[in-house]
């Protein structure tokens, strides 16, 4: 029992750390700004398919990323809440692997425009931001995330201690 708790905490911490590193990497290459933002770290939102430890890992990683990159309080807490909602729903949909990225795409596409409008003063229409944030999430979660899911699926037992 103790080993399972240690494994869970270790996996969550590693996922959080990787999320932060990938966020900074995307920022360094200018991918995390502009009309369509592609946060490489969002591809990790498929990890609840493999382990429930991804849920706190993604949430903590997103909070840290938003804080360390100078995000406003609304982004740090509400923006990260979108990732938490997406991660929980992705875990619940894990039996339908093709649906796993969908909750995070939708949660971010719906919630993040409000953060951009009220937290950062963007004057764009919510629908425009919904489409642009959604497009970035489709690239990050839908395309890159599914590539990651299939790449990791073969090694799930070794990496996560279980098979899918």
Chart the SSEs and their pairings.
Layout: H1 2-28, H2 54-68, H3 73-92, H4 102-120, H5 126-153, H6 156-160
Helix pairs in contact: 1-2, 2-3, 3-4, 4-5
Radius of gyration: 15 Å
- CATH C-level class is Mainly Alpha
Low-confidence stretches: none
Strand content: under 5%
The profile of the biggest β sheet is: none
The number of domains: 1
The 3D shape can be described as globular
Order of helices and strands: HHHHHH
Q: Count of DSSP helices?
A: 6
Provide the CATH topology.
Answer: Arp2/3 complex 21 kDa subunit ARPC3
Helix content: 55-70%
Q: Could you say which structural class the secondary elements and strand pairing correspond to?
A: mainly alpha
Number of strands: 0
The chain-level mean pLDDT equals 92
- CATH architecture verdict: Orthogonal Bundle
Termini Cα gap: 21 Å
